[in-house]
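Chapter review: from sequence to fold.
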Amino acid sequence: MNQQSAETLALKGLAFLANDPSALERFLTLTGTTGPELRARAEEPEFLAALLDFLMTDEPLLTTFCEAEFLDAQTVHGARRALPGG
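The C-alpha cell string follows.
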C-alpha cells in the first residue's frame, strides 16, 4: 500500500471515530488533541499514523471499523506500515 492510500484509509478511520463519541474522546485524550487541533492536523501523515495505532490497540473497535469499511485487519496494518514510523 502506498502512503496516499494509507492516508485515505486513515481518514476513513477518523470519520468512523467521529461517529463514536466515546472512542473519539478516548483518542483525543490519549493524543492530547482538542477538537480544533483535530481538524487542523487531520491531513498530517504522523497524526493519521497515530489514529491507526489507536484503532489497532482496541480490537473490538478495529473489528467494527473493518466491518464497516469491508476491510480486513491486515489492510489496516498495511496502511500503518505505509505511514511515518511504520
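Two observations follow directly from the output. The chain has six helices and no strands. The first helix runs from residue 3 to 18.
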